[in-house]
């Protein structure tokens, strides 16, 4: 089976390509390197021990899809390619609506045109907004999004669901994942944020490495145990394996329509200070941080109930927060040594 991975050179995409290879799939990658680097392709190839089929292109352009589908027989798509920084989306909402939603609509149009009927969509726990109760289950209400980024994920899920409803044989799964961190234990691939990181862990590792000033902790007055925001941090390799499980479930479906969505997390909420303490325990290094005002678009706390994904996908996490932070630091040390 040949699987197209959009954003295949990105953080989650690159790890998923490796896990697809480990599971016996053939992959085709497409990326425009707007938030990734070409060296990720080399890292993937070194890990799997063979070249990958790769296209550099913008999936917001019809010509990119026509070239892909005319040259490759694609059996399914895992769609990662999107802008993802919550803060930037608040400042530049039109950039996010244009890229995240328009490209997804074009992809679905081209999938219909070329008869590609299997899709795993990279969604997010941001679709839940600030949940009324925790942990979040798939039956939890989808709240008004706290950011334009979160809204793009809500809208794309709705578009995909409507496409399934209107198409006789279309199968799709949305994976609502929580906060991916870590790196492959080979340290050949990992997170390569361009510019100032928008996410906690890469900023933390860059700070400890001396590349940034003290880590900014946005808010210490939240109604949580220590006043800092709580998230569900999942190792990126565990997250990558969830996509393989989702793809296998899609491919088992009989003829007809199929759509479902799953939480992908650890089931444990960790505060920003929890992460700092766990990093210090994992590495023996001190994290300097400073408290800043709350960041617009951030919710107080969100973490997953993963019962549905455990039972239906047959998937569960294997790695701990300490594992993830240790791997993230090993990746950062490798980057320093370049």
Description:
The protein is an alpha/beta fold and 338 residues long. The chain has a domain at 2-182 and 233-265: NAD(P)-binding Rossmann-like Domain (Rossmann fold). Helix content is 41%, strand content 17%. It has eleven helices and 13 strands. The protein has helices at residues 11-22, 39-48, 62-71, 86-91, 93-114, 148-166, 200-208, 236-251, 272-283, 307-313, 321-336; strands at 2-6, 26-31, 53-56, 76-79, 118-124, 171-177, 179-181, 215-218, 230-231, 233-235, 258-264, 270-271, 289-292. β5, α6 (148-166) and β6 (171-177) form a beta-alpha-beta unit. α9 (272-283) crosses α11. The longest helix is centred in the first third of the chain and has 22 residues, at 93-114. 47% of the residues are buried. Homodimer. It comes from Arcicella aquatica. Its EC number is 5.1.3.2.
């Amino acid at each position: 089976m040949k699987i197209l991975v959009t954003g295949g050179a990105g953080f989650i995409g690159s790890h998923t390509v490796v896990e697809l290879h480990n599971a016996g799939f053939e992959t085709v990658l497409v990326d425009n390197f707007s938030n990734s680097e070409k060296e990720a392709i080399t890292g993937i190839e070194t890990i799997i021990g063979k070249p990958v089929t790769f296209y550099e292109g913008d999936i917001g352009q019809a010509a990119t899809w026509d070239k892909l589908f005319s040259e490759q027989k694609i059996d399914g798509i895992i769609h990662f390619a999107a802008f993802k920084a919550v803060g930037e989306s608040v400042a530049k909402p039109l950039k996010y609506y244009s890229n995240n939603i328009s490209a997804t609509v074009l992809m679905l149009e081209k999938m219909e045109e070329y008869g590609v009927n299997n899709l795993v969509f990279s969604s997010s726990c941001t679709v839940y907004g600030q949940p009324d109760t925790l942990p979040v289950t798939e039956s939890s209400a989808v709240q008004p999004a706290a950011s334009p980024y979160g809204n793009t994920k809500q809208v794309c899920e709705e578009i995909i669901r409507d496409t399934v409803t209107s198409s006789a044989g279309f199968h799709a799964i949305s994976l609502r994942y929580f906060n991916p961190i870590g790196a492959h234990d080979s340290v050949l691939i990992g997170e390569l944020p361009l510019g100032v990181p928008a996410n906690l862990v890469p900023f933390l590792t860059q700070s400890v490495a001396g590349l940034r000033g003290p880590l900014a902790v946005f808010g210490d007055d939240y109604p949580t145990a220590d006043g800092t925001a709580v998230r569900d941090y999942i190792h990126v390799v565990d997250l990558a394996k969830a996509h393989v499980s989702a793809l296998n479930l899609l491919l088992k479906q009989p003829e007809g329509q199929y759509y479902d969505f799953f939480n992908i997390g650890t089931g444990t909420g960790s505060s920003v200070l929890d992460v700092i303490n766990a990093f210090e325990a994992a590495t023996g290094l001190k994290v300097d941080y400073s408290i800043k005002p709350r960041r617009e678009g951030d919710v107080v706390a969100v973490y997953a109930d993963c019962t549905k994904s455990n039972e239906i996908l047959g998937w569960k996490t294997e790695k701990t927060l300490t594992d993830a932070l240790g791997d993230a630091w090993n990746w950062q040390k490798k980057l320093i040594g370049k």
